[in-house]
Amino acid sequence: QIQLVESGGGSVQAGGSLRLSCTASRITIGNLCMAWFRQAPGKGREGVAFIRPTGSTDYADSVKGRFTISKDNAKNTLYLQMNSLKSEDTAMYYCAAGPWSSNCVSVEYAYWGQGTQVTVSS
Prior knowledge:
By secondary structure, this protein is mainly beta. The chain is about 0% helix and about 50% strand. It has no helices and 11 strands.
């Protein structure tokens, strides 16, 4: 059974940092589009950061310059380093895996983790 398990969420004051991790089982993230999404209460799901099999990345404008997505293929683990956190970053964060593509922003993500909560207080 394919599993994505997130960790690293928590509560932090505005301006602080958190690092999320997502460990995958029964899939090889190096061959796939991987992404972080988030969903705040009462809002739709938002794609935050994307990483291609090649390692190149894309970001939502709202997090560009503050968040960094990366992966360790040997550990089969995806990361999201979040710096300069703002109250509007408060949400449940999910990692997701999708098919190989040169455009990981637009693919359909078939596999999802259970989410990890990030709460930023101002």
